[in-house]
Amino acid sequence: MIITKVNASTPYNVYIGKGLIDSFDLSPYAGKEDAVRKAAIITDEIVSPLYLYRVIKLFKKNGFEVCSCSFEGGEEHKTLDTVGKLLSFLSMHQLTRTDVVVALGGGIVGDVVGFAASVYLRGLDFIQIPTTLLAAVDSSVGGKTGVNFEGLKNQVGCFHQPSAVICDVDTFSTLPPARFSEGISEVIKYGVISSPEIFTMLENRTPIEEIVAKCVSIKALFVEGDEYDKGERQMLNFGHTVGHAIEKLSHGTVSHGNAVAVGMVVMTASAACLGYCTDDFSLRLSALLKKYNLPVSTDYTAADIAEAVLHDKKRSSDKVTLVLPEKLGKCILVPYKVDELAGLLGKGLSSSAEKK
Ligand SMILES: NC(=O)c1ccc[n+]([C@@H]2O[C@H](COP(=O)([O-])OP(=O)(O)OC[C@H]3O[C@@H](n4cnc5c(N)ncnc54)[C@H](O)[C@@H]3O)[C@@H](O)[C@H]2O)c1
Ligand SMILES: [Zn+2]
User: Which atom from ligand 1 is nearest to the alpha carbon of 135?
Assistant: First the structure.
């Protein structure tokens, strides 16, 4: 097992390994001997038949009193309505401030359950057990929780750090290959923003637990430096401005991971056009994305994408903050005029198409 510490305002450990959902020692989280701690284990309806029984068994074995429930997954259920149902469930089972909520599943479960835990009785401890690669390397670490609201993604939420993250990489074995690849897209992102070593690890098919641990340690650094996402943490959005635009234009038919893959290619090409990128690693980037069946081009035009970016909530005033690579492993944040974005993306799109 690999343990990575996240030194956020409330520090916690991320445990990464195999077989953890059957054998992890929860005693540091079990509370005092004289009071049995309740664990409310919450998952979605796909993960429930796969792993809930084993996780319930683990918590019971470690002395917890357990209650559990599942909700229907999907972005359309990442809502305040679902949060309300979870709060009713916690209330019905009389969870108190000394109890713990457990989010078992992908990023949607983590975000929704984390948000419910953050507001129930003004905040309960919660433990993340991510079961998608994306949740393991990204959403389970860093404390961002929330739901979609009035058609906008993650529009309502708060920062609520978990007490622990227990990542059993064996759970990835049941992920459809496309879902696994979506997670790889985020892994590659960490490589571009911070670590050429990740490219080597992926090219050499290093065991996934080592790759997850490397990504988590990078995310931990960004979270520690900028827990509330006002500066450097925005680096984690590399490929995401264009990615979100493509997701939006496709009405969700292009997955997040696929959209971010294209976004990374376009931003790398755009950085080269602007003269920021000194190291031409774009061929290596595209080859790695293709190796994991991720796309490197899109049919949407630069004008379509720029228009969709214009409506992105992360845009402040007339500028958008672009994350541009200088070389593999190092990016910078560049405020860029939104009305000049279509021109830049046009150059980026055609330059990346030429290299395809
Ligand atoms: N909080 C953050 O910092 C942060 C960061 C990135 C993304 N997110 C959020 O994460 C969400 C996406 O996360 P996701 O990609 O994990 O999506 P998800 O939670 O929808 O999971 C994807 C699908 O895989 C299924 N699944 C989960 N684990 C499985 C397993 N082991 N085997 C088989 N099927 C399994 C789920 O039921 C779901 O159908 C988005 O809502 C996004 O906004 C949050
Ligand atoms: Zn992402």
Answer: 16
- Residue from 147, 156, 174, 179 to probe ligand 1 pocket by mutation (most atoms less than 8 Å from CB): 179
Pocket lining: 73 vs ligand 1, CB cutoff 6 Å: yes
Amino acid making up residue 250: S
> Is residue 316 predicted with pLDDT exceeding 60?
no
Where do the domains of the chain lie? 2-174, 177-355
For 209-233, how does the pLDDT look when each residue is reduced to its tens digit (9 = 90+)? 999 999 999 999 999 999 998 889 9
Q: Is residue 134 within 6 Å of ligand 1 at its C-beta?
A: yes
**Distances from the Cα of 227 to the Cα of 122, 150, 171, 221, angstroms:** 20, 26, 28, 9
CATH homologous superfamily for the domain 177-355: Dehydroquinate synthase-like - alpha domain (1.20.1090.10)
Ligand closest to 189 (CA) is 2
Supply the pLDDT for residue 125.
96
For ligand 1, say whether the CB of 183 is within 6 Å of any of its atoms.
Answer: no
pLDDT in tens, 79-122: 999 999 999 999 999 999 999 999 999 999 999 999 999 999 99
Determine if ligand 1 sits within 6 Å of the CB of residue 135: yes
Q: So what's the architecture of 2-174 in CATH?
A: 3-Layer(aba) Sandwich (3.40)
Q: Report pTM.
A: 0.95
Higher confidence at residue 338 or residue 295?
295
Are 171 and 128 a contacting pair, CB within 8 Å? no
Give the count of beta carbons closer than 10 Å to the beta carbon of residue 28: 10
Kindly give, in sequence order, each residue whose CB lies less than 8 Å from that of residue 352, ignoring residues fewer than 6 positions away.
265, 266, 268, 269, 282, 286, 296, 297
Q: Decide: 69 in ligand 1 pocket, CB within 6 A.
A: no
